[in-house]
Amino acid sequence: MFRYNNILSVKEYCELRSAVGWPMIPEEQAQAGLDNSDFIIACREDDVIVGSARLFWDKGYIAYLADVMVKPEYQKQGIGKKLVNECILYIDSQLKADWRIKIVILAAKGKEQFYEKLGFEVRPNENDGAGMQMWRA
């Protein structure tokens, strides 16, 4: 049975990064990212971490959905959908009258359809250019 809560250790975060094939980052850097997240949701089976997602919000109109990760052997079981929906519910809970908040994500290659099914629009489209990024090291 899967349990969801808002607790994610740096070791669990790094374990998930490794499981999904993402580059490792120093634990200190990962901890800073966790500490500065506005919302974290984690999924466990028993005491084993199987997935998580984080959200950053500027307290105005932009929120960034980051690090949606589910271990490969647990994918296609609705965990990713639940993680993303919990992040969306968090933003919905912050809305004030007449507010609009845009949630953005840089989808991993090949995962665009997953996010489309949850209501996200693919960029580029007729109104928006491609998502952009810059790594600094």
Summarize the structure in words.
- This protein has helices spanning 10-19, 27-35, 79-94, 112-117, and strands spanning 2-5, 39-45, 48-57, 62-70, 102-104.
- A 5-stranded mixed β-sheet has the order 1-2-3-4-5.
- The protein is α+β, with helices and mostly antiparallel strands.
- Helix 1 crosses helix 2 (27-35).
- It contains 4 helices and 5 strands, in the order E-H-H-E-E-E-H-E-H.
What's this entry about, in short?
By secondary structure, this protein is an alpha+beta fold. It has four helices and five strands. The protein is globular and about 40 Å long.
SSE arrangement:
Blueprint: E1 2-5, H1 10-19, H2 27-35, E2 39-45, E3 48-57, E4 62-70, H3 79-94, E5 102-104, H4 112-117
Parallel strand pairs: 4-5
Antiparallel strand pairs: 1-2, 2-3, 3-4
Helix pairs in contact: 1-2
